[in-house]
What does this fold into?
Amino acid sequence: MESESFVYGCIRDWPSADPEQRRQRRDSNRRALDALPRGEAWPFLGREMFSFCEVPGQGMYQTQLIHFGASYQAVEYEWKLWVEQFEALLRRLYWASAVVHLETELNGNHTFRWESEKGFHSPHDSLRVRCAWEREGSLHG
It folds into this structure.
């Protein structure tokens, strides 16, 4: 039996006092996620692996959280491609930070963090981030 890997995490938007601005960002993020491949068509990122609360007061106060998770066959061997697709998605979203957990049978557990240099990222911005990688509690930058 091949080794199984688990990838899960969260993309966090930034809070805003303007309800119309929050709604527009959430709608834009929903469209970007809906544009992801569905079913068997997705090699690394697919629509079914993402979820988010849409109703204020029911799982969302001011900040939208987009959570995701999937299991893969030894994805760590193609991790560079997974990250490329994830960063391509981040380019199309409104977000402030993202965290991805990778659990592998052979190579241990890893945590990857993306933070927008400005504290927020809009789809029309270039992707400028600070990244950090942690492996089982030790920090590597």
